[in-house]
Amino acid sequence: MTHDPNSTDSASDPPADPDTLAHQASAAALRRAFPWLIATLITLHACMASTRVAASLWVLDQGYGEWTVGLLLSLFAVAPMALALWAGRQADRYGFHRPVGIGVSMALFGACVALAWQGVWTIAFSCLLSGGALSVAAVAIQREAGLMADDPSQLKRVFSWVALGPALSNALAPVVAGLLIDHVSFRAAFALAALLPLLCWLMARRVPSHPPKPQSAAQRARPAWDLLRQPALRQLLLLNVVLAACWDAHSFVVPVVGHARGLSASSIGVVLGSFAVAATVVRLAIVRFSQHLDELKALRSAMLLATVVLAGYYWLPGTAGLMVGSALLGLALGSVQPMVLSMLHQVTPHERHGQALGLRMLATNGATVAMPVGFGLLAAASVAAAPMWLMASVLLLAQLPARALSRQLAREPLASTEERVQG
């Protein structure tokens, strides 16, 4: 009997798993909306960046001390600490649009309060809401971005773009806010901050809606802390906190060391800028070469490079030397977020990605609030470079959990997004 090649033989080709087909179709639809997802992140982050610049300059213009600026800036990190775990539960339960809508509402209300009544308390309230708004939305955005990838190389590429969004916002929003303050008024800068959440919501509406599967009562009752029982996630979060603290150490030490050497404000700005440019470049490189990168090897290489640079930074000669050191540190630390987010999505259950992202936000923002104070006390009691030397030592010790994570993943290899969905 001759087999007809045009006939359909269901016996020879077993049907694909319905969950796999559904996930692939959903991921394909989401990938087409990826530019709108990044635009959502950029516009909401720009609201926070504009508020940060306008608030800082307003309190200085009104004659308040630098300590007031520091207090206002700390409010941007306090709210994410309080809301991170709740934001994770919201993202797991409702998906993308509801948490982003909450974030947009918070940012819009905070900006409108500062726009209508400019006083130190109203601006502090605006800073608090702006930081909290970004935290609620960012967890949902990061979770949604993870759904747009089918394999680890796509995860690295996706999260490199996610990391580039705030970098672009930080490059543009403060400049626009500063121009508005100089040429119009502070009120115009706060009006910009109020306009951006509305623009953010228009972008978010372009992302297709696909609510997660309803959670059982038992699933909803599981606390985020329960995820820390997983050794891989616990070690990954520890490494992320250490590397985030290294970022803060660089931000703290460069102005202090530059001032001690008599560098101008513009020279110090150029040194800090070289770090930001290098961080952006390495994220673009990850987008291009993601399929050739192993997350854990890249993370450990970044840790090694950062250790060497932090240990020797204080002795680098002149502005050019500091620029080279900051650029190398930017290359190392700029690669961390895409790798960590990619691995986080692979070591946690699909239905709990939001909670895992909330835990990460809580940990890194806790470090952002606590570390600068500790660095200041340490530098005052010893030398300006002491925070960098401390973090170089901590990075050496952090190779131990990195090695433990490597052994853990050797026993249980990272799963693809599709495998997590099916599991």
UniProtKB/TrEMBL annotation:
Location of the Major facilitator superfamily (MFS) profile domain: 232-423
InterPro entries the record matches: MFS, MFS_dom, MFS_trans_sf, MFS_Transporters
Gene3D superfamilies found in the cross-reference section: MFS general substrate transporter like domains (1.20.1250.20)
Subcellular compartments: Cell membrane
GO terms, molecular function: transmembrane transporter activity
Main location group: membrane
CC terms in the record's Gene Ontology section: plasma membrane
Stretches that traverse the bilayer: 33-55, 67-88, 100-117, 123-141, 161-180, 186-204, 236-257, 263-286
Top-level division of the source organism's lineage: Bacteria
Annotated region (Disordered), positions in chain: 1-20
Keywords: Cell membrane, Membrane, Transmembrane, Transmembrane helix, Transport
Membrane topology term: Multi-pass membrane protein
Protein name, per record: MFS transporter
Species, as recorded: Kinneretia aquatilis
Lineage of the species this protein comes from: Bacteria, Pseudomonadati, Pseudomonadota, Betaproteobacteria, Burkholderiales
